Every structure is written in structure tokens, then in C-alpha cells.
Amino acid sequence: MKKVLFAICFLFGAAAVVNAQDTTSQDRSQTQQYRDQDDDKDRQAISVADLPSSVRDQLQGQDYTGWTVANAYKKEKDGQTMYLVELKNGNETKKVKFDALGNKIKEKDKKDHGGQ
Q1: Which spans does this entry mark as compositional bias, Low complexity (predicted)?
Q2: Domain co-membership, 37 together with 92
Q3: What is the pTM of this model?
Q4: Alpha helices (H) in 1-116, listed in sequence order
Q5: What domain range is 101 assigned to?
């Protein structure tokens, strides 16, 4: 009887260990996903020619040598106009957010993993 009780306790303990997970990393990625979706709302696609000259000057600068503009977007937020530019360089992609004066607000690098 003791062996059976011990075996049952062992199985419950093993099941608890197997199911123990760190959920904080999953919560962070979901939060980041929602934040990215919020950034994508209310933006309109524009051509590179429609970007302000200050933003185009930044893109032609030394920081973005070798990068080409894949997409450009305009967004109004809190009474300010912002521009999101998606850049490509080989297998790498980068999103850069500028204000109307050409000041970089945010930059996000992302490597293309071939559809993975």
C-alpha cells in the first residue's frame, strides 16, 4: 500500500514539474505584439517622394548606407506627424520612426529568417 501511495505522489510531483513554465516571457511578447499593432493603426502608406526632405536627408545619410526603402507610412498621433520607414538590406529589415523634422524617434532591427 505504501508503494502505491508513493507511486501516486511521485506521478503528481512529476506532472507538476513538467507543467511548470515561465509565462512572463510569453506575456511580454504578447504585450509587444499589441504595442506594434497600436503603432500600425491609422497609418497611411505614402511614397518616398512624399516623405519630408528632412527625413529623406536622414535616409541618405551614413547611418543608412546600403539600405533601401521598402515602405513608407505617415501617421498622426497626439497632434504630431510621424513617419515610419521600412528599410531592407539583403536579408535584414529595419523599421525607423521619424518626426516631421527628421529626428529619429525609434529604430527596430529585424532579421529575415526565410519565412520561419
Answers
A1: 22-34
A2: no
A3: 0.60
A4: 2-19, 24-40, 53-59
A5: 42-116
